[in-house]
Amino acid sequence: TTPTSVSGVRQPVVEPLTARTSDGRAMAVETFLIDVAERLGLPGFGENAFLEGGRLHKREDYYLKMVANIAYDGSFLGLSGGQQVKLGPVPDANAAEWQAAERWYKFDPDALTEAQWRKAAYVLARGGRFEDYNLGYLPGNRPTLMTHQFGSKDMPLQIYNPTVATTHNALTGELFHGTARYEPIAFHNGVTMDSVDKTAEYPFHLSTYKQPIHTHARTFANAWLRELMPEGFLDMNPVDAVRLQVADGDQVRVSSATYPQGIVTKVRLMPAVRPGVVTFPNSFGHWHYGSGKWAINGATYAGDPSRNAPVRLNALMRLDPALTDASGWGTCLIDQVGGGCDYYDTRVKIEKV
Q1: DSSP states of 111-132 as a string?
Q2: What local confidence, expressed as pLDDT, does residue 292 receive?
Q3: How many other β-carbons are positioned within 10 Å of the β-carbon of residue 268?
C-alpha cells in the first residue's frame, strides 16, 4: 500500500504521568532496563556507551540516536536527471524546521553531536523521512513495476523457497515443502487434529483478536481505556446463540480437550463473527498484571483488581501432545515452519451455565 520507503517518527505531546526517578527521569520500561544494565556494568550503557562517545543513561539518549540513524540512512532514493540515485543524509534543518527539535535539544543536548542535531531536526519537523511518491515506480514504465519489489529484479516473486525445502521437521525428520500447499492442522508428530478433536464434541473454533483501543496487554493498565470497556466477552454469532439458547450477557462455560474444566464467561452477540467461531479480546484478564499482592522487603503492596477484568481464554488453547511431557507440561499448537503459536485452531465446546 506504500510503494516508497518510509520511516515514521512520533513525538510525545504530553509529559508522562508516571512517577519519576530521583534524577527526574520518567519511570518507564526503557528507564528500568537502562538502570539495570548500568547497575550490572554492562557495556553499551552509561558513560561512553557509544563508539563515537556519548552516554546512554535515559531513553531519550537512545531514541534521538535512532532519529539520527534515519537522517543519515543512505538507502533512500531520489531523482537526478530522470534517474534514481541514493540520496545519502538529509539536508540540515533550516530555522523553522529547527523548532521541531529545539525542545529536545534543551532537554538532552548531549544526545547528539551538533551536526547530527541539524539533520535530526529535519526529520523531526516532518514526522519521519519519506521518499517522493514519484519514486514508487521505475522511471519510464507504466505504474506496474515497483521500485521496491519483493525478491529481486529478475525474480520479484518467489514461488519456491529452497531454505524451507531443505529444512527438516525436528521431530519426524521429514523435509518441509518448498512451495505453497494446503496442510491440515496437525500436531508435531503428524497426527491431524481432526482425528482427535471431533467436531461433534467440539463444534466451535476459538480465536482471539486485538481491539483498536488496545495494544497487546500493556494498555489495559490505562484507566481511561478501561472506562471505555471495563470487561471482555466471548463474542458469538447470533445464529449460534439461538441454537444454544444463549442471550446477550448470559454466562457460558467454554472448554477444550486440554482444558476440560473450562472457563466461565459472559457472551456478547456480534454478527461480524462467523458462525461456528467464537473469539475474545486479548487485552483482558491478565492475572498479576499490576492486580495482585506482593511482599517486598517485609512490606505488602496491593495492586488494582480492575486490571485483570475478565475474560482471558488462553488457558483453553489446545496443547500439542507431541510436545507435552509425562507431567502434563507442554506448549500450544505451533506453526511447524514459522515457529509461531497457533491462536486460531483450538476447538471448543460451549455450555450455558
Answers
A1: GS-HHHHHHHHHHHHHTEEE--
A2: 84
A3: 17
